[in-house]
Fold this sequence. Notes:
CATH class of the largest domain: Alpha Beta
Strand content: 15-25%
Largest sheet: 6 strands, mixed
CATH superfamily of the largest domain: Bacterial extracellular solute-binding protein, family 7
Oligomer: single chain
Order of helices and strands: HEHEHEHHEEEHEHEHEEHHEHHH
Shape: globular
Number of strands: 11
CATH architecture of the largest domain: 3-Layer(aba) Sandwich
Radius of gyration: 21 Å
Bound molecules: (2S)-2-hydroxybutanedioic acid
Number of helices: 13
Amino acid sequence: xxxxxxxxxxxxxxxxxxxxxxxxxxxxxxxxxxxxxxxxxxxxxxxxxxxxxxxxxxxxxxxxxxxxxxxxxxxxxxxxxxxxxxxxxxxxxxxxxxxxxxxxxxxxxxxxxxxxxxxxxxxxxxxxxxxxxxxxxxxxxxxxxxxxxxxxxxxxxxxxxxxxxxxxxxxxxxxxxxxxxxxxxxxxxxxxxxxxxxxxxxxxxxxxxxxxxxxxxxxxxxxxxxxxxxxxxxxxxxxxxxxxxxxxxxxxxxxxxxxxxxxxxxxxxxxxxxxxxxxxxxxxxxxxxxxxxxxxxxxxxxxxxxxxxxxxxxxxxxxxxxxxxxxxxxxxxxxxxxxxxx
Length: 342
Ligand code: LMR
């Protein structure tokens, strides 16, 4: 990747300042453009590591014309503040779970939370390259949010202060969910009481019993130490955690070509880094949690998993009211999902 020379840097910064309307006025010719990147996980979680990789590459490929400031672990903005901050221009980059896109008013992003949708893992990733994503990306851009990449952070497991082996075990439990309406329906179908709680407040909510359990990827359970405040972990793989790396559309489209090129390359390579490391990190995290011996493991047997699938497939049917059957069928086809005849 050829680097910008100093003259190009000056021109690029001036053009970007004019186009983005962010009031960026270089104090002197070489003042770097500072990009704020906020997220809610630790620096050593897959998303945290990919954010650091983006910073390294963006600063390198722009030859210092861009400086990336990373605000990890909800230190700048929490779940419920992030999207507003992006749309106000107070932060430039986020990588939230797409289960948290509800406030953007695009209900279709909840569809990725349909239980066991990604049961055909080797086909499922095709979904994020399919034409149906182009349709959703267009809706996202209409809200002023620019989707730069999708990062698949793997399968969810459950943690709880009691064993979760059969669907009926959820009866009456207060279970933390992200803000997606489909996740709300999943919890209710299991007989649980769903509670939307920000990721940054989840450890304390589990510790104080505000909620009895939650579902997440192993790397989050490890890096947030949820195993300290939960007694049981069920390897259910009932859902997946997908992030979208997003920017303000006005900001990103306003970047000068000289800055856009290195930043696009940094997005591409940090996405490749995420894809190459997240799956391994989550497998290693599950092994590490187990080795710590602080939480009791249960891996669903095929028969138990069949019971969970049978219990949860009605959520797919119910969601035809929310998304329409044609849209769900498009998602099924793109994800290689065939509804089991339960
Ligand atoms: C959660 O809220 O459980 C996750 O989406 C947090 C994250 O960004 O991985």
